Every structure is written in structure tokens, then in C-alpha cells.
Amino acid sequence: MSENEATTSHPESANEGGDKENEFLEPENKRRKTTPSSDKKYKLEERLGGILCCAVCLDLPKAAVYQCSNGHLMCAGCFTHLLADARSRDDTPTCPTCRVEICKTTATRNLAVENAVSELPSECQFCNKQFPRNSLERHEQEECEERVSGCKYHRIGCPWRGPFHEKTNHEQECGHPKKSGAEVMEALEILDQKVMEERKLYKAIFELLGYDKITFNDIQLKPYRSDDFVHRLLYESSRFYVSGHQWLVKAKITENQKDPTQNSERVMTYQLVLKSKVSTALSLSYIVLCGPVGDIKVQPRVYKFDFTEHENETPYETFPLIDAAECNRLLAAKTINFRLIMFWASK
């Protein structure tokens, strides 16, 4: 009996020993979490995104890519903003990474990086699917079923905006086509106000085209610094002659800001100055457009002023640029070129 008990007790003791060893072993799932996995490694496109990003905004460039002489990358928007900010501070623009001097002549386009970035995948803001960056814009504007769209009855007041794939169902159930004429007219009045503003501008231009004397001059503004305690960035053109009178154009940046360098939303204003003496009043209308030399982007706006012997400078009017980014782009350039059309004799 003693031998049998001994033989039967060995397996139990062996099992007890194995159980004790298993107590110190981690569960299978836990061991998998602590072991390195290839899924945790960053993908190649993610690593490239960190390498090819702009040194200023730390985002992948959407268009042109510039680099300093040491190869540090900057997107076109940040590059022009650096140049514009340095110009407004009367300072030398430098690379934000290595502080080497940059300008439009020393900084070069990096076409290889531009092509590489265009092929990197990017996520659609609507459907969250991955697409190459060079085709993402077309997908978001034309192809994505989740893109935001409006009802075809928005002109009569329907405020609905939703996914494109729900547009057809909404339009079938939309109640705006069944509204009364009075309710529809309220929505149309808002649209009519915008149309009337555009018509006033076109009508004013067409009337000016019937004036006796119409002249145009291609103006180039060059920067200089004021003699004030705090130097201000100003622009001035060369003097030019129109019908026996001498003129020039002046411009300045963000007049209502104490320190324009601390504000990214810059505004440019300009004035027309008559340098000749006149004995009779001159009623003049003028407009700024993009000329054949520059590529300035403006929204046409007609200004009118009566020049006299004592009033020879127009007030500073807003330069009709499309946005603040266009102002920064102009500041980054060495000169500003545009066409000034003057209508200064009544019909």
C-alpha cells in the first residue's frame, strides 16, 4: 500500500509544481501586448509626412515648396508670410530652422518634394477615406458621397445642407416649393441685394467708359521707410503725367494697427496725389486693376474725388485685394505692380 500511495502521489506533486510555475507566467494576451509588434511601427507615408512638412506650420505643403540654401522646407504661404513679416519689420528674412538669410532669389523650388507630397495619401474630410493628395480635391468636390451639398431650392430660402447622397431624398420632400409667393419673395430679396451691388459696379464702369478722356498707367510701387521714431513701411510710385498734370500713388499697410507686424490680417490702403497746381477743379474717377506686368488679385472698386487747388490728395482708400493672404504676397515682393485707369472728363 505504501508503494501504491507513493506512486499515486508523484503525479499530484508534479501537477502542484506545474501549477505553481504557471502562477508566475503572464496570460497569453498580456504577453502579446508587451512584445514588440510590427503594427505599432509608423507607416512609411507617416514618416515621410514628418520629414517633408513645412518648417513653419508643420503641415504638408499643398502647392509650391521652397527651401533655403541649407535645404529646409517651407510651403508657399509660410514663405511669403516670412518675407512680408520681415519687410514690415525692416528686417532680414531668415529660415526659421537654421536662420540663414532667405529671399526670392536665394530660396528655390523643390520639385522633387512637391511631386512626392502630391502622391502621399491624405484623408477625405467627409468620408475619412485615404486618397492621393493630388486627387483629393477633385474627390471632395465632385465624387465623395458624403460631401456637404445644399438643396436646389436654396434660392427660395431652403437652408438645408447635408451629405450629397441624401440630397435627392431631401429635395423630394422639401416644403419650400410649396410655399406662397410672399414667403419666397423674402428669400429672394436677400439675393437681389447682392446682385444689385454688382450691377451698380458694372453700371458705374460702363458709364465711365463713355467719358471723353480715359487714360491708364502701369504703376509700380516701391517700398521705403518713414523717418518717424517707429519706422513705418510705406510705398510710393514714380511720378507720371496724365494730360499735362503730374501724379503719383502712395500706399501704406494697416493704418489702424499700432504695430502691423503683430497682425497677420494686414490691409493695404492707397491714395492718388496730384503734384501739379490747378486753377479749376478736376473731377476724377479711378479704378485699380491687374495690369500686364503684375499678377495682383483685386476686386474692382470705383473711387471718385474732386481735385482743387487746396485739395490735391485723395483720402486713403482700401486697396481692393481679395484677402489678407494676397496682401502678404504683395509685401513679400520687391515691388507692387498694377494698372491705374483714370476717368477725368465728363461726357
Describe this structure in words.
The protein is an alpha+beta fold and 347 residues long. Helix content is 33%, strand content 23%. The protein is built from 9 helices and 16 strands. Strands 8, 9, 10, 11, 12, 13, 14, 15 and 16 form a 9-stranded antiparallel β-sheet that branches. Strands 2-1-3 form a 3-stranded antiparallel β-sheet.
Write the layout of secondary structure elements.
Blueprint: H1 2-23, H2 28-34, H3 44-51, E1 65-67, E2 73-75, H4 76-89, E3 108-109, H5 111-119, E4 121-123, E5 130-132, H6 133-143, E6 148-150, E7 161-163, H7 167-173, H8 181-208, E8 214-225, E9 233-237, E10 240-242, E11 245-253, E12 268-274, E13 282-289, E14 303-307, E15 317-318, H9 324-332, E16 336-343
Antiparallel strand pairs: 1-2, 1-3, 4-5, 6-7, 8-9, 8-16, 9-11, 10-11, 11-12, 12-15, 13-14, 13-16
InterPro entries: Sina-like_RING, ZFTRAF1, Znf_RING, Znf_RING/FYVE/PHD, Znf_TRAF
Zinc finger (TRAF-type): 120-158
Family: Belongs to the ZFTRAF1 family.
In short:
The protein has helices at 2-23, 28-34, 44-51, 76-89, 111-119, 133-143, 167-173, 181-208, 324-332, and strands at residues 65-67, 73-75, 108-109, 121-123, 130-132, 148-150, 161-163, 214-225, 233-237, 240-242, 245-253, 268-274, 282-289, 303-307, 317-318, 336-343. It has 347 residues and is α+β, with helices and mostly antiparallel strands.
Tell me the series of helices and strands, N- to C-terminal: HHHEEHEHEEHEEHHEEEEEEEEHE
What level of helicity do the residues show? 25-40%
Mean pLDDT: 80
Would you tell me the structural class of the helices and strands?
alpha+beta
SS elements, strand count = 16
Shape: flat
Q: How would a textbook summarize the main sheet?
A: 9 strands, antiparallel
